[in-house]
């Protein structure tokens, strides 16, 4: 009985196999513990490197995007509302005749003094002669062949009927093309006269515009038109100044003359160079 009760194989406490195989609280040592411990640092290292690569690529993409935006802004600036608007002949046609003045300076070349002087002169002319004249400046023409066609278009657009445009006059100055034109209704053309109109268009506007004296071109044109309407002597207009440059080259006659003088001088020097030493030598030998 004692042998059976105290047998090591029958006592679960003293049997080591029963302890490791049946006890639920102790872990099984089928795999080495160190392998499970080393897997986590390796996985975290790969994850960290992958995260760093993603962060670097994201930073590179953002940098390239910022550089592209900067280049686009520098080379393709966005339009601003504070800068001056580009002159256009279509704006003049669509806006209609000015209500507070007689001047439409769409090219932006006239001074405030010129605008005030034109307003004063043309207002006085309208009050006395019932003739309304508008002065227009544009930078360039893209829709019409020349200033005359554009002036006719403005007259027809602003005053579509014969009654409205009968006593109206239009003066156009194109700054880029350096040309001008004058048109108007029958009453305006008759009051000014064909001779003065042709002279003003061929003298005052193109000559002074070529010299970029736009203010003087408009004032002199207004003075000439007002004088013709009032029956006063024609003040005339400017003329082209021929700037002849003096040439630095000599003419053929001057060249031949200079060549002859040079030959004489050279010949005289050669004679002196040979004759004087020979004369000195002869005088020295004769003394002996």
TrEMBL record:
The chain crosses the membrane at residues 262-284. InterPro entries: TPM_dom (IPR007621). Residues 103-227 form the TPM domain. Keywords: Membrane, Transmembrane, Transmembrane helix. Residues 235-254 are annotated as: Disordered. The keyword Cell cycle does not apply. Residues 241-254 have a biased composition (Basic and acidic residues). It comes from the Eukaryota. This is TPM domain-containing protein. It comes from Dendrobium chrysotoxum (Orchid). The lineage of its organism: Eukaryota, Viridiplantae, Streptophyta, Embryophyta, Tracheophyta.
